[in-house]
Design a protein that fits this description.
The chain has 227 residues and is an alpha/beta fold. The chain has a single domain, classed as Glutaredoxin (3-Layer(aba) Sandwich), CATH 3.40.30. Helices cover 22% and strands 26% of the residues. It has 5 helices and 12 strands. α2 packs parallel to α5. The longest helix has 22 residues. The N terminus is likely disordered.
Length: 227
């Protein structure tokens, strides 16, 4: 699919995600207000905007869902063990950029999206005062850890949503049976402040068994210029 356009002897090292730190604060919040409520900025195709509004059937969640991820973490001996990490551990009291993609090791995700986010991470963090940048995909922790290692990630942390629970609760799950992928995530990104979603970036044409793989609104260059 092509787009359109070091180990510590005392502490364990987690290749996937780390527990929360204190937030850096609020900078250039651009939420809109409507009916006295804070609304997220939605970046998507113009003809799809209405269906993502609050009163529409395809309304977007205002907060990240409460989910526990089963992750594989490496200790100082190089051994791995299971560890449960919740969305509160990841998003509570923090400002982060989250982006999701159909699958690890797939062409657009591996050739463009993940490497470009890794390359632009320092700029994105500086501009939007981010604590972290997360990449989530409907893959198991073994696959996501290997993908992170192969891409020599230093700035982006990967989240394995193997059961698709997080993706389903974000209302971003789609079937990709046409590629024998099963249930996966649509390509999207969002900025999350203390669990509240302030900005959305959603690729056009979200549907099951989509024959195209749009990549525009979730390009890190677009996010850098439009968040």
């Amino acid at each position: 699919m092509k787009p359109r356009s070091g180990a510590n002897p005392v502490k364990r090292r987690n290749l996937t995600i780390r527990k929360c730190r204190k937030t850096k604060g609020n900078r250039n919040e651009k939420e809109s207000k409507k009916d006295g409520k804070m609304k997220a900025i939605i970046n998507c195709a113009r003809n799809e905007r209405e269906m993502y509004e609050e009163t529409r059937w395809r309304a977007l969640p205002t907060h990240v869902p409460s989910v526990v991820f089963n992750t594989r973490v490496e200790d100082y001996k190089g051994d791995f063990e299971w560890e449960e990490v919740s969305t509160w551990d990841l998003f509570g009291g923090r400002r982060v950029l989250l982006f999701s993609l159909p699958g690890a090791f797939t062409p657009t995700c591996s050739t463009y999206q993940l490497p470009y986010f890794e390359m632009m991470a320092p700029e994105l963090k500086s501009k939007y005062n981010l604590d972290d940048i997360y990449c989530v995909s409907v893959n198991d922790s073994f696959v996501m850890n290997r993908w992170a290692k192969d891409n020599k990630l230093e700035h982006v942390k990967v989240i394995a949503d193997g059961s698709c629970k997080f993706t389903q609760d974000m209302d971003m799950n789609v079937n990709k049976d046409n590629l024998s992928f099963g249930e996966r995530s649509w390509r999207y990104a969002c900025i999350v402040h203390n669990g509240f979603i302030t900005n959305w970036f959603i690729e056009e044409g979200k549907e099951d068994n989509c024959t195209e793989d749009p990549y525009h609104f979730t390009d890190p260059s677009f996010i850098y210029s439009n968040a």
